[in-house]
Amino acid sequence: MKIPLAYSRRQGAVELTDKEYTFSLWDGKVIVRPKLDMKYLYIEITSRCNLKCEMCFKQYWEDEEGDMDWELFLKILDDAEEFPELKMIYFGGIGEPTVHPRFMDMVREVKKRGFALGMSSNGTLMTDDMLREFAKLGVDLIYFSMDTVPTAQNAITLGHLAAAATADRIKRLVKYRDEYGTHRPSVGVEVVVTKENYKQLPEMARFLLDLGVDSMLVSNLLPMTGEQMEDIIYDGSVDMKPILEELYRIAHNGLYIKLPYFELKTERSCDFDENNVAVVRWDGEVAPCYRFLHSYYEYIFGRKKKVNAYSFGNVREKSLAEIWTSEKYTWFRFTMKNYMYPSCTDCPLVDACDFVKTSDIDCWGNEPSCADCLWARRIVQCPIPQHNFGKFY
């Protein structure tokens, strides 16, 4: 029996497909039946930005910039209706959503269709009318980028340098949501931590708590240049223990703080894969995560690596459901969830290996390769929403 889509979405029913794939696995075979179980759909509505932060991918990638056209956006939302477990549409990617000329139209369209909506933004282009409408529409989650407290914004060179403007937008948004008597949007702040600002983390957490922020996500720096390698703090050069202990104490006062690892650990877990995320680039290409959305160079503990954009299909040509349940994308998610990929980062052969020079393929034949990914090591983090106590964080 076919469960009506609206009912299945409300009840959390799993939409099965009639596809079945058989994969060879060492001396055996494994049968995988893909499901329409995407939980978070990230849409890069634009790859442009109004800021030029030194540490951002955008300053170093090779890709063309552009805005998603309206017809493609509507098609993606139509396709999203096919996923009964979908929890949220999220405006993200590597760009500033508010620079899109139809940004507010897109916000209204998502909420009109009944989807939960989240987004990441530097906040600097958000007008008072926009902030009021976010609260009125019940936008569910907004993560602001902010790498220092406003009084110390001149002390950093790598992060977002508009802390005062961003803090002002947060303060007004919290005020307007209180006026509407709701707790939406839930407000988060993403901080990229380096040697320049790590000592400020407790001060920043207290500042955000006083501002009415709900959550603080801390990520390490992913170096784009050899010079930026000098700014990382996950190489043993910094004692983070007293900083972390202070952050734990502050969190007890009601600020949800999500911290990365500050050293290389054996455990691997990809938040994008664990939460069944797909990311649609502005031109319709579907990537599994931010890392494979664009092409650029990164530095992994001093090693220069070329990351090439990887797409499992384009939503202009196929539906999201077709792409999500395709053989290649299904196998990719299966290998990730079962950790069936090597570990380049701590491999004793890394200095003599050609596979680590790009993200194209690993020594087990997986493509693209996640074996050298700092997201999978929980050293680098992006906002992947979690729903607890009736709201998103």
UniProtKB/TrEMBL annotation:
One Pfam family this sequence matches: SPASM
- What are the protein's GO molecular function terms? 4 iron, 4 sulfur cluster binding; catalytic activity; metal ion binding
Q: Which InterPro entries match?
A: 4Fe4S-binding_SPASM_dom, AdoMet-like_SPASM_containing, Aldolase_TIM, Elp3/MiaA/NifB-like_rSAM, PqqE-like, Radical_SAM_PqqE_MftC-like, rSAM, rSAM_sf
**Domain named Radical SAM core: residues:** 35-258
Record's keyword annotation contains Transmembrane helix = no
Q: What cofactors does the UniProt entry give for this protein?
A: [4Fe-4S] cluster
Q: Which SUPFAM superfamilies match?
A: Radical SAM enzymes (SSF102114)
UniProt name for this protein: Tungsten cofactor oxidoreducase radical SAM maturase
Taxonomy of origin reads: Archaea, Methanobacteriati, Methanobacteriota, Thermococci, Thermococcales
